Amino acid sequence: MELDELISSKLLKNWPSFLICLGLFWILKNVIYKRSRGPQRFTLEEPDEEVEDLEDLEDELQPALEEKPHVAFVPGQNLNPNGAERFYQLIQGRRSIRSFRSDPKPDLSVIEDCIRAAGTAPSGAHTEPWTYCVVEDAELKQSIREIVEQEEFINYSQRMHQQWVTDLRPLQTNHVKEYLTDAPYLILIFKQTHGLSKTGKRKRHYYNEISTSISAGFLLCALQAAGLSTLVTTPLNCGPALRSLLKRPTNEKLLILLPVGYPKIDCTVPDLERKNLSDIMVTF
Ligand SMILES: Cc1cc2nc3c(=O)[nH]c(=O)nc-3n(C[C@H](O)[C@H](O)[C@H](O)COP(=O)(O)O)c2cc1C
To answer: For residues 146-185, b (16+ Cβ closer than 10 Å) or e, as one string?
Structure first.
């Protein structure tokens, strides 16, 4: 029998096994392809509610804010001569650090002032869609660390694509996060996808992620002004578990986790350069 006759007769006889092999090949190919592309949503959380969930609100057409006469604007004080230049000097010294001392522990009142400052941020339709959870309890920090390290191990080994892991190499990060138990405070910033009006109705939080991110930026500046260090972290896939741990409601989605405190004496940071003004600003 010729070779091609042999192959076709075997194929014909064994067509069920051939189909199974084809199916297995297809599944394997898709698994490898998905893993090589990494996760499709680079988010900490499950998706926000569908817009349809909130559609019923449109029936009422009442503003979420009280309608009252505007008041005179009192311009902010210029506390510093050359304020912008001095602010730049302050903020250009900010660095992300990943090695924290457990003590001294900053006063909680300082953290409160920083969060007060964050709470002055603008927000879409003045919805103020943020919650700042401050954790100082050692056991709770340990639980947070366990959740994050477990997920980050999977993130680094499976969820993040190879280019991503490679891009992180200069920062020398990995799934081990000692700072989550070393830092005297952890601040978990949640965006609220919707809120409740005074009458107990669900109200929309427009642009809640942008608003909360701007507020978080205010917090970073305030922490810097207070002489404290921090690190913006966005641990992938940890949101639901951390939200449950802190018993937060489901309309709150974890956006950022910040360890806050002072750097260890021997703390080092990546040798980074910043873009020049001419690279980030275009004048017309
Ligand atoms: C949105 C965002 C997410 C980040 N996520 C992480 C993170 O998960 N882990 C981490 O170690 N650093 C994280 N960083 C810190 C950056 O790596 C750091 O800001 C960057 O390398 C620049 O360094 P610098 O903050 O010292 O200027 C994040 C920063 C931002 C703004």
So the answer is: ebbbebbeebbeebbeeeebeeeeeeebeeebebbbbbbb
